[in-house]
Specification:
Layout (H helix, E strand, L loop, with lengths): L16 H13 L6 H13 L3 E8 L5 E5 L5 H14 L4 H4 L2 H4 L4 E2 L6 H6 L1 H7 L4 E11 L2 E10 L7 H28 L2 H8 L5 H11 L4 H8 L3 H15 L4 H10 L20 H6 L7
Helix pairs in contact: 1-2, 1-8, 2-8, 3-7, 9-10, 9-13, 10-12, 10-13, 11-12
Length: 293
């Protein structure tokens, strides 16, 4: 084992114009949870000269997670890679992405393994090397029930991440944490009552979500029946089911919950992102075509 069994702590850093610029760009973007991954793909990629950046979010309460890459990939191959990673992630604390282990540090595979040791690892042979990934640097952050992991990768043939690049990512980390928390608040501010109910109570049927959203707008059962073109008794049945699923004891309680419930308490925000976030300009300029899955 190499030197990261030693304590690795953030250092005081001189002014770094590139780092300062990435911090400014991140805050100026004012991302929500939908646009944050794309902003981080671009910023982290430039900051540490990574060929590929990944953004992974794990939700402790539900056990759900999402993982996205800064390049377009084959979903089937990525699913195989995730399954292989799950088999081997407990072989070393570096792969476990435990916030307590990482703290405020940026850690590299080279902090823990020599070249020979890494190449012999089952996780390297089954997950990283088949995807052309050789060098890895990671930071881990926690916000409420969520653990967010940002990884930078370099392809086979490139050098490991340097100490200076590690220091830059460590310096960028608190700004990512702040932006992530702000992204939560921006997203919450734009959610409709129907959005809140849908995310917070996935057991509600589509029709129950419709009825609940109209109740949140102050509509009576008769109004809702007219809007949905159904009988009043049908609406009453939906309202009764909503009461049971929300633990609400009246229409006012449903309305209050719909307007105020923290929607991500039980399930993570499994947003989809569009192709416009896929990064790669820096790679194309270097003429490389890394492959990740």
């Amino acid at each position: 084992m190499q030197a990261a069994e030693r304590a690795i702590t953030p250092k005081s850093r001189p002014h770094d114009a590139g780092l300062a610029q990435e911090i400014i760009v991140l805050y100026e973007a004012e991302p929500d949870l939908l646009s944050l991954p794309g902003a981080l793909f671009a910023g982290v990629g430039r900051l540490i000269d990574a060929d590929v950046v990944t953004y992974s979010e794990f939700h402790h309460t539900s056990g759900e997670f999402r993982s996205m890459l800064s390049i377009e990939d084959d979903p089937a191959r990525r699913a195989q890679g995730i399954a292989a990673f799950a088999r081997h992630m407990h072989s070393h604390a570096f792969w476990g992405y435990d916030p307590a282990f990482f703290g405020e540090r940026a850690l590299r595979e080279s902090d823990f393994f020599s070249d020979e040791e890494f190449l012999a690892l089952p996780i390297a042979q089954e997950v990283f090397l088949p995807s052309n990934a050789r060098h890895i640097m990671s930071i881990v952050m926690q916000h409420e029930d969520y653990v967010l992991t940002i990884n930078g990768y370099r392809v086979i043939g490139r050098s490991t991440f340097s100490d200076a690049e590690r220091d830059r990512l460590e310096a960028f980390r608190p700004h990512i944490v702040r932006s992530y928390r702000q992204a939560f608040q921006r997203t919450l501010a734009t959610l409709t009552p129907a959005d809140r109910l849908r995310i917070a109570f996935p057991e509600l049927t589509p029709r129950q979500l419709e009825v609940g959203s109209w109740i949140a707008r102050g509509k009576s059962n008769e109004d809702i029946a007219t809007i949905l073109d159904v009988g009043v008794d049908t609406v009453k049945a939906h309202v009764k089911a909503i009461h049971a699923k929300l633990g609400a004891d009246g229409r006012l309680a449903i309305a209050v919950i719909a307007h105020t419930i923290p929607p991500f308490t039980r399930m993570p925000p499994l947003w989809r992102i569009g192709e416009d976030v896929w990064a790669g300009a820096a790679r194309r300029e270097r003429g490389r075509q890394p492959r990740m899955s």
